[in-house]
Description:
By secondary structure, the protein is α+β, with helices and mostly antiparallel strands. The protein has a single domain, classed as Penicillin V Acylase, Chain A, CATH 3.60.60. The chain has five helices and 20 strands. It is globular, with a radius of gyration of 20 Å. Taurodeoxycholate (6SB) binds next to β2, β7 and β8. This is choloylglycine hydrolase. GO terms for molecular function: choloylglycine hydrolase activity.
Amino acid sequence: MCTAATYQTRGFYMGRTLDYEFSYGDEITITPRNYPFHFRHMGDVISHYAMIGTAHVAGDYPLYYDAMNEKGLCMAGLNFVGNAVFQELSDSRDNVAQFEFIPWILSQAASLAEARELLTRMSLTGTSFSPELPTAQLHWMIADKTGALTVECMADGMHIYENPVGVLTNNPPFDKQLFHLNDFMHLSAKQPENHFSPDLNLQTYSRGMGALGLPGDLSSASRFVRVAFTKMNSRSGDSESESVSQFFHILGSVDQPRGCCEVAEGNYEITLYTSCCSADTGIYYYTTYENHQISGVDMYRENLDSDTLIRYPMLSNEQIHMQN
Ligand SMILES: C[C@H](CCC(=O)NCCS(=O)(=O)O)[C@H]1CC[C@H]2[C@@H]3CC[C@@H]4C[C@H](O)CC[C@]4(C)[C@H]3C[C@H](O)[C@]12C
C-alpha cells in the first residue's frame, strides 16, 4: 500500500509513503534539463524542466515513483492493482507509456493547468519498460499549489478527477474513496457533545474522543480516511522546517510497522520510505524505515543544465543523536 498527500502552508508540499515488502533499489534521482528523454511513442525531448524524485534507475532511465519539477508541479504513482487498465495506441493522441507518465508531465508542464492540458490529448499505454520490469498497475496524483488531480485508467477509459482532499491511497477507485468520507463527517478534533440522549449523563472521559470511529487499520480505504482527517486538521507554523516536520506527522498517521500487514507467510509490508517534495525550495526530503532522521537533497545544489542523471542512494541507517 502507499499513501500520498499534499500540504499547504506558506509553501506547498507533496509526498508519499511507499509501502511494500521489498525494495526495487530506489534512489533520489535528479534529471537535469538536458538529459535526453527518448519516449517510446513520442520521439525525443532533449531539453525540458529538471525534476527530482525517487526512481529505480534501469539502464540510465529514471523510472520515477514520485517526483517534482523545478516549477513546483508534483506527481506520485501508487498501486491500483486489479483496476488499472491501460489504453490502446491511438493515431490521433499522444501515446505515453505508463512508466513514462511522470517524466512526460513533469518535463513539460509548469503547472497543474498545463498538466490538465497535456492529459486531454494523451493516451496512457500499457507498453512495458522491459520483460524484467513489466507494466505496473498504478494510478496517480498530480498536484501543485493550485490543487490536485487523480488520474485512473480503467476498463472504461481514463478518469481525471479533481482531488479536493489532496490525498491518494490504493483501491477502490478514487470516486468511491471520496464518497466514503461522507460516512465520517461527524468526526472532529474538538471534544464531542452528547447528542446520544439528553436522558443520559454521558462524559468525555478522555481527550481525543471527537475522532472516535476514525479507522485505525492499514487497509487502503481506512488509510484514506485517516490521512485525510489528519491532513485537514493539521496546524503548523509557516516555516520550511515547521511545515516539513508537520508533513511527516501527517504521513506518519498511516505508517506501516513491520509485522502488522502480512502479505505471505512471514513476509510483511512496511513503509520503506516517506518522502516530502518542497515545491518552493526544490528540496526532496525523506525518511526510511530504519532512518527516522529527515534527510534532504536540494536540486538547486546540482548543475541542472547537465545531461546526466544525478543519483543519491537513500541513507538507510538510523542516525541516533547521542547527547552525552
Ligand atoms: C510497488 C510500488 C507500489 C507499492 C504499493 O502500493 N504496494 C501496495 C500493494 S497493494 O496494491 O496495496 O496490495 C510501485 C510504485 C511505483 C512503481 C514503479 C514505477 C516505475 C516502474 C514502472 C514499471 O512499469 C515497473 C517497474 C517500476 C520501477 C515500478 C515498480 C513498482 O511497481 C512501484 C515501485
